[in-house]
Amino acid sequence: MSNQSFTTTIVVDKTPKEAFDAINNVRGWWSQQVDGGTEHLDDEFTYRRLDLHSCRMKLIEVVPNKKVVWLVLENNFNFTNDQSEWIGTKPTFEISEKDGKTEIRFTHEGLVPGHECYNICHDAWSFYIQKSLHNLIMTGKGEPNERED
């Protein structure tokens, strides 16, 4: 399953610590509509985007400057029939040094092409990782969804 799971990689001219800190600043690159802790093992947070998507995540692995793994506990899309597609999947950030730069490999373990949400999620994660997270690491400013209230 993991070889089919959605994966994207970015390389930044920053330290692994700077990348790790940015990843954990979920409000800075994914959405300002995040409530709860996003930095420590066993933290849980909720994400909401209009009436399109909501989910609850738990940090199940946190290795400073190397790895962050979330577990999707609850999920709701307004554009799919199967609301369970994300439940139990694991958005995973792996950080490593390559040729004097830092590589971040994002894999949403369990998000596979056969899922009803795959194309939309592929495009969304691609934007949030390749553009918003990349920009947050490089410039200190990402492009998260604005807070709705």
Number of helices: 3
Question: Roughly how much helix do the residues carry, as a percent range?
Answer: 10-25%
- CATH superfamily label: START domain
When the domains are counted, the total is 1
> Which whole number gives the mean pLDDT?
96
Number of strands: 7
Structural class: alpha+beta
CATH architecture: 2-Layer Sandwich
CATH topology: Alpha-D-Glucose-1,6-Bisphosphate, Chain A, domain 4
State the distance separating the first and last CA atoms.
38 Å
Shape call:
globular
Strands side by side in the biggest sheet: 1-7-6-5-4-3-2
Give the helices and strands as they follow along the chain.
EHHEEEEEEH
Briefly summarize what is shown.
The protein has 149 residues and is of the alpha+beta class. It has helices spanning 16-24, 26-29, 118-139, and strands at residues 6-12, 34-36, 44-49, 53-63, 67-77, 90-98, 101-109.
Please supply descriptive tags for the structure shown above.
149 residues, globular, Alpha-D-Glucose-1,6-Bisphosphate, Chain A, domain 4, alpha+beta
